[in-house]
Amino acid sequence: MPIENRTLQLGPLGNNTYVLTCPVTRESAVVDVGFEPEAVIALVQREKLPVKWLLGTHAHYDHVAGMLAVQKAVGGVYALHPADRPLLATVKQQGSMFGFPPVDVPEIGHELSDREIVKLGEQELEVIFTPGHAPGHVAFKHGDTIWVGDVLFRESVGRTDLPLCSWEDLVHSVRERLFCFEDGVRCLPGHGPSTTIGHEREWNPFVGDGAMRR
């Protein structure tokens, strides 16, 4: 049986927060809580889900600002790639750049690594290192679904004009780390609607095959 996925679109930037659950054990992971942590807490408590992991695709303010509140309420080990420690340390400054209030963030309880397998009950998530939008950005793959964070959107990509971003790394991450998968693989991004590898390979104006030929 596949992992159960619940998508919550939260906050002023329309962030997608995901709650992933093993259908057998009910063990759960929460991915990227930026805003409205109370909505995530309410879902977890209502369904009595044991939270094992708080998974971060990266440490920008809008993906981590609510993580500590969730951790305090329902538990879970906060996991992040170590290359994003510098971003995590500057979350307050990031927020002030965009007029958001200062927040405290959780301690990293587990450092993610490329190709690592994260156990969730009887299910497994594969970590894929996808830097560019952030130096320690990762995606999480299970079967024919990838939670891609902000590295890839439907017909767009994550911005690279922020500190510690790299356009060259982002292109490599998408073209070499994500486009290696089959066309039908579904991508669930940090903002906006879902897409597929095949759609982005053909139609993405920034990193699709057409863009690479220009």
**Intertermini distance:** 42 Å
From the 3D structure, determine the CATH topology. Metallo-beta-lactamase, Chain A
Shape designation: globular
Structural class based on helices, strands and sheet pairing: alpha/beta
Low-confidence stretches: none
Classified by CATH, the class is Alpha Beta
- Quickly count the domains: 1
Count of extended strands: 14
Helix percent band: 25-40%
Q: Quick check: average pLDDT?
A: 97
Organism: Eiseniibacteriota bacterium
Keywords: Hydrolase, Metal-binding, Zinc
InterPro entries: MBL_Glyoxalase_II, Metallo-B-lactamas, RibonucZ/Hydroxyglut_hydro
Domain Metallo-beta-lactamase: 14-191
Overall description:
The chain has a single domain, classed as 4-Layer Sandwich (Metallo-beta-lactamase, Chain A), CATH 3.60.15. Helix content is 27%, strand content 28%. It has helices at residues 37-46, 61-64, 67-74, 85-88, 91-97, 167-178, 197-203, 209-213; strands at 4-10, 15-21, 28-31, 51-55, 77-80, 110-111, 117-120, 123-129, 138-142, 145-149, 152-153, 156-157, 186-189, 195-196. The strands form 3 sheets. The chain has a 6-stranded mixed sheet with strand order 1-2-3-4-5-6, covered by helices on one side. A 6-stranded mixed sheet has the order 7-8-9-10-13-14. A hairpin with a 4-residue loop joins strand 1 and strand 2 (15-21). It is globular.
Features of this protein?
six-stranded mixed β-sheet; globular; 27% helix; alpha/beta; 214 residues; Metallo-beta-lactamase, Chain A
Outline:
The chain starts with a strand and ends with a helix. The chain is 27% helix and 28% strand. It has a single domain, classed as Ribonuclease Z/Hydroxyacylglutathione hydrolase-like (Metallo-beta-lactamase, Chain A).
